[in-house]
TrEMBL record:
Protein name as catalogued: Phosphotriesterase
Hydrolase is among the record's keywords: yes
SUPFAM superfamilies: Metallo-dependent hydrolases
Pfam family, one: PTE
Transmembrane segments: none
Natural source organism: Streptomyces melanogenes
Superkingdom field: Bacteria
UniProt keyword terms in alphabetical order: Hydrolase, Metal-binding
InterPro entries in alphabetical order: Metal_Hydrolase (IPR032466), Phosphotriesterase (IPR001559)
Family, similarity comment: Belongs to the metallo-dependent hydrolases superfamily. Phosphotriesterase family.
Modified residues (N6-carboxylysine): 136
């Protein structure tokens, strides 16, 4: 029996996973939250400029982790992808409860899995046929609350029905092992169908190694926020994981969340050359090009 080659679901349709090029594995073209009043990313021209700059630096694909109800502007993603030449992967899913009005959560709480499946298989409402290619959920600070458990259960069900990967926001990089205990232990999701985001924000080498050994993908994404300076430790963390045999588990992203975030061009203009000096070009190429092919492919 001939097995079909793996594909990634972009906003312009499914593409072979080996055609992603250089991948920003975690970013946002559009996002809004009541926690960031006045700092919304909602300007189409600015999004287009970031994509053009990313493309000009050799970028091929951007994975937007903005989930349901947070201003992801699905209606603009296809045109932006076409105009820039950058492939875009959109997200379904749900963030932490604090990012939503209570009435919105009440309206979807009992049908989350159906919502996620519909957005992956049929399309995002108002998105002109754009379908999501991953499921974004979120943990809490060093633990999982009832909302996180609810959304992760729905994500696991949607994953089983669609093959889409589950991408997890870790609050300040914490709670990775609790997430894996729930998703992979209790709910039966294969560890290599889980991406753990923001691990650079909690440079705990033991946790990193345990998560990688379990088989999950590890996302090192976004420059440090003020008073949380961990950027200088990221090369050391990546090298330790690669030396331990986990080079194939690593991903990099820019995580643009406010207009003043350096963003996706910064990933290739500054982060990539610095990592190449510290880690070597071959390893950085693997992290940016080879690893995302497996991470984002639709696979049950």
């Amino acid at each position: 029996m001939v097995t079909a080659p793996p594909v990634v679901r972009t906003v312009l349709g499914d593409v072979p996973a080996d055609r992603l090029g250089v991948v920003d594995a975690h970013d946002h073209l559009f996002i809004r939250s009541p926690l960031l009043p006045g700092q919304e990313l909602d300007d189409t021209e600015e999004a287009a400029a970031r994509l053009r700059a990313f493309h000009g630096l050799g970028g091929g694909t951007v994975v937007q982790w903005t989930p349901y109800g947070m201003g992801r502007r699905a209606d603009r993603l296809a045109a932006l992808s076409e105009e820039s030449g950058v492939q875009v992967v959109a997200a379904t899913g749900l963030h932490q409860a604090v990012h939503y009005p209570p009435d919105l959560l009440d309206s979807v709480r009992d049908s989350l899995a159906e919502l996620f499946v519909r957005e992956i298989t049929e399309g995002i409402e108002g998105g002109g046929g754009v379908r999501a290619g991953l499921i974004k959920v979120a943990g809490g600070f060093h633990g999982l609350d009832a909302h996180a458990r609810l959304t992760m259960r729905a994500a696991a069900e949607a994953h089983r029905r669609t093959g889409a990967v589950i991408a997890v926001h870790l609050e300040l990089g914490t709670g990775a092992l609790d997430v894996l205990d729930l998703l992979c232990g209790e709910l039966g999701v294969a560890p290599d169908r889980v991406i753990l985001g923001h691990l650079n924000r909690s440079p705990d080498a033991a946790v990193h190694r345990q998560a990688a050994a379990a088989g999950a993908y590890l996302g090192f994404d976004g420059p440090s926020r003020a008073n949380h300076a961990t950027d200088w430790r990221m090369p050391e963390a990546l090298k330790a994981l690669a030396d331990a045999g986990f080079a194939d588990r690593l991903l990099l992203g820019g995580d643009t969340v406010t207009p003043d975030t350096p963003g996706m061009p910064y990933l290739l203009r500054r982060v990539r050359p610095g990592l190449e000096l510290a880690l070597g070009e071959e390893l950085v190429e693997r992290i940016l090009v080879s690893n995302p092919r497996g991470a984002f492919a639709l696979r049950r």
